[in-house]
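Example record

The entry below shows one chain as it appears in the dataset: sequence first, then structure tokens.
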Amino acid sequence: MLIGVPKEIKDQEHRVAMIPAGVQMLTAKGHHVLIEQGAGGGGGIMDEEYAVVGAEVTPTAADIYARADLICKVKEPLPSEYGYLRPGQILFTFLHLAASLELTQALLQHQVVAIAYETVETTDGRKLLLEPMSEIAGRMALPIAAHYLSSPLGGRGVLLSGVPGVPPATVTILGAGIVGYNAARMAAGMGASATLLEVDASRMRSLDEILPHNVTTLMSNPLNIEECLRQADVVVGAVLIPGAKAPRLVTRDMLKLMKPGSVIVDVAVDQGGCVETTRPTTHSDPVYQVNGIIHYCVANMPGAYGRTATFALTNVTLPYVLDIAEKGWMRVAQEHSEIAKGLNVVHGKVTYPAVAEAHGMECVPVSQFL
């Protein structure tokens, strides 16, 4: 199979979907890999490192899309890339289609087979391709919030850890999944007082046993969220419903409960955000204010740490890339239920229920294509 890896063009996106070790493993099995010139630069991977293990380094994305059977990316195609897509081409990347009608329509129009990293889910509920990026985003959230809490940046001027005689910052974390757990660990390690809100009592019970004493677990409901917002210096949105729009847990009116200069880091922005006033931002222009509350809503947070994130992501995606290259997407989906769940769009039809529901479209069962 011919596998193409274009350079990511989203603002300040420094990840790449393939490392040289992956190229070496694919070429050893007789596959051909196209890498766009400069694609690995953000992660410190030079073109020569790809070429020496058998990749063909090509100067344009157009050439890659025109030739490749399988396109491996990190982030969703942007409008300038839509026209490159071809019927039957396999697209393997993060998509977050429930938050973008435009992208969904483009994939349907171009008749691609789109496998979304974020909806690849094992029978026991693990999202193997999303987990490493969630870990990175969760660990980033608190240092970012600490930065924007500073007075020169418009924050409340509260040091996350406090000092002797002065209390630490108060952190509210909405959701106790991978993002929430990692954010809670960072908050605790930085000396803040954190509350982790979750609806799953079993999950709270298990986390309560392993998290430090400066993290409190609390049942997530509107009344408890409102009370936490009144106290919070930092709010981290970490709610995920696989493939679906994130629930709006914090409304615009609820911002009035918060202290001016408080910081919201909405990691759920890829799925529309769990705060009503969330809108996607970029690493180049990461924050804005609503009612005096600083919002950080960068839709590709892990892209800031291109090397770490690239290696963490490709560690989990490469086995599937190898499998698809060897067997084709259809057989892999038949053999691996997690890939069947990853299929969002197939030959002009939406196959993931939450995406169809988000856009009021018909959902065709994946089984009809297998």
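Notes for this example: The domain at 2-119+306-369 is CATH 3.40.50.720 (Rossmann fold). The chain has a mean pLDDT of 96.
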